[in-house]
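Our preliminary data section would be incomplete without showing what the modeling component actually yields. Below, a chain of 215 amino acids is followed by its predicted structure, encoded as tokens that our downstream tools consume directly.
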Amino acid sequence: MNPDTLRHAVTEAGIVPILMAGNADPETAVALADGLVAAGARVIEVLFRSSAAPGVLADIRKRHPGLLLAAGTILDATGAARAVAAGADFMVSPGLSPALHAAAQGAGLPLVPGVNTASEVQHARELGYLVQKFYPAWDHGHLRLPEFAVIYPDVSFLVTGGIESDSVTAFARHRNVAAVGGTWMLGSAAAAAALAADLDRFRAARAEPGAGHAY
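Predicted structure:
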């Protein structure tokens, strides 16, 4: 997957559910993914914070071969190797380092690195990352994103960290936000089904005059 394909896919997704795959009950995570797909999810991020996570991602892949799957919380070469082995389409990290960049290059999987400041955005951009994870969103997100849209018009953001259903519309209006991600829809099967309404609100806000993308 090349960077342009990744950006298009994330933009089309609008909302990226972030799935917690615990060791105690991996079957529940897979079942939640079923509900999210039924509600319209096109991309799901599985956090690689447990030994069960790669298996959960692989199981979701078998059940939903057309779904784009991200391996989240990838921090180093070991995590990148686990993402490749599990069949992830791309990787997401809360940050970026020289070692992680090298690991991503070696793995051959696209990486969405985490940024929060102008220096971090600029560094990631210089390395060729035009889809970046703005994290955490609650940390002055509505102040920084408009500034970044002016300075870095070719960079799009997957915004995560503190996002709730009530904040979807506000973030969708930022013209450099490709998608928002979070866990608010994972509390129950009913919450997963409610993703459909959040997607409608996100797309409606993005279609408003003055909203949209920087590219």
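The chain has a mean pLDDT of 93. The chain has one domain: 3-206. Preliminary results of this kind motivate Aim 1 of the renewal.
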